[in-house]
Design brief:
Blueprint: H1 16-42, E1 47-48, H2 51-58, H3 62-72, E2 74-76, E3 79-81, H4 83-178
Helix pairs in contact: 1-3, 2-3
């Protein structure tokens, strides 16, 4: 359940309390009621009963707030509350704690399995180490051979190139001497 979500029954507008509010104040009264319900939820089940401030905030007059609070809510020690709202918040908190605990258990299980898998991997590496070293040695050996072949080819090409340069140079000297 989302933290900022307020669930209510489909036909709550037709309950006797809300029918009386609608009969006297119209849909505006219903809007004030739901605004008060939201504010009580926001304040963890108890809203400070400051009639002037609430009337200003909700865009209505003090009389409307007073009458709607008297009809639909309970005032205890200058705090507006409702039993169903407190029950809703308590249930929401219980579900949240249950989900949080389940998440913690799941996280611990995943971490434990991850550590176990790493341990298994380490053990497997130890058993495969000799084979792995042989494979690494073969790769290194192949690289050395490959590099040697390339080096020999470069040297051979250089010798051929040098000979052809010498040959051309000798040919040019002979040609120059003939003239």
């Amino acid at each position: 359940m989302a933290k900022n979500y307020l669930q209510h029954d489909y036909f709550s507008r037709s309950t006797p309390v809300l029918l009386k509010i609608r009969a006297k104040y119209g849909m505006a009264g219903l809007g004030v009621y739901w605004c008060l319900v939201e504010k009580i939820h926001e304040c963890d089940g108890q809203l400070d009963y400051d009639v002037e401030l609430l009337a200003f905030e909700l865009g209505t007059d003090v009389e409307h707030i007073t009458k709607i609070v008297e009809q639909a809510f309970v005032v205890i020690d200058d705090m507006i509350t409702a039993e169903w709202i407190v029950d809703n918040l308590t249930q929401r908190k219980a579900v949240s704690e249950k989900n949080s605990n389940a998440g913690k258990v799941s996280g611990q299980s995943r971490r434990a399995n991850s550590k176990l898998n790493r341990l298994k991997g380490s053990v497997q590496q130890v058993f495969n180490r000799k084979g792995t070293d042989v494979e690494e040695d073969k790769i290194i050996e192949d690289k050395i051979i490959h590099d040697k072949i390339i080096e020999d080819k470069i040297i051979e090409d250089k010798i051929i190139e040098d000979k052809s340069i010498d040959y051309d140079f000798n040919e040019m000297r002979k040609y120059a001497e003939l003239k």
